[in-house]
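Support request, please re-run this one:
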Amino acid sequence: MTVKLYRNARIFTPLDPGHPLRGKEQGEIKEYSRGAILAVNGLIEKIGDEKDILGGLSASYVNEERDMEGVCVIPGFVDPHTHLCFAKRREDEFKMRLDGLPYLEILKRGGGILSSVKAVQNATEEQLFCNTKKLAMAALEKGTTTVEIKSGYGLDLDLELKMLSVIQRISRETPLDVVPTFMGAHAVPTEYKERPDDFVDLIINEMLPKVKDQGIAEFCDIFCEEGVFSVDQSRKILKAAKALGFELKIHADEVHDLGGAGLAAELKVRSAEHLLAASEENLRAMGRAGSIAVLLPATAYSLKKPYARGRDMIDWEVPVALATDCNPGSCFCESVPFIFGLGVMNMNMTIEEALVASTLNAAYAINRQHKVGSLEPGKQADFLLLDGETPTTLAYHAGSTSVVEVHKLAERVA
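Re-run finished. Output below.
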């Protein structure tokens, strides 16, 4: 048994009431101005004021003790929406967008997601793994300790299974906790461009059952957007996935108010992502349904679009999480500290709301709230040391990261 004591720390953490935090709750953070964490075999046994933790604690019980010297400690970041598994960057398309070509037009020309599909087709599984691992480790160094990774650059059964195998390997061969998501419905392949319903049938009748048999993916996601998958098509796929036991996510209303957020509410999906164009009516419905809004401010930054209405969503009682959306096209960013700053500065979230959004609510968005997202007894001792007095430094120190140490299961990993 390994027992570690971290004392004299200034600890900031949300507290988990058994549901995602919303409305005024999202701004509630517990602070221990002189706190301590007692971890046993990587899990938190006790956390609280130092005097309470040390009282009655036998010195012989503790294997390792560290004086944190008043450093700021927060939970490890949880990134609940990424496309880290890809084979090639799309820097040229970024330049096209800067020159005024819309993203959906790039997609129509065979760029966008479809160009990433070609790159995955041409890459060996080892090449795909090495590229994904490099990005995953870069995210870890910036404080991400738990990450969701989607497939979706395969668009056929064999390539999707290949991507999911790589994602599973990232979980085995890095310190990160990885949540795999199947996203075969990321785009309509060129050969199905004139008959997208046939591709929907292929996903439902062939891909989903085989992905279930593979036993890696936990979630099913879909890109519900004009020119990609309609609300009706998305409903069919998500309902079929749910029947097979998958948890549900949806890329909703990123460019147009197609009604994806309303579908998210109807199906009570665990989370809906993007939501830049979602209507107030459908967002409020999501709040009532308990679906989490996963907002991706670096994507709006990269696409030079208005940001999602994070402030309004919180005021409308929608639980909000933040994520990087790291991908080779619309958002090449693996830094949660950057996302945190954008949430505060460009979506008018408070520091406390952004901390909840990048930890506990993010954990709820990928069904890991029982393990991570807050520093509480029974959860993993995943925490970050910051170069600053409070979590405010994450937004205050712009263009950098305030994360100076990353601890996973009470072991320093970065």
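The CA atoms of residues 11 and 33 lie 7 Å apart. The longest strand covers residues 3-13.
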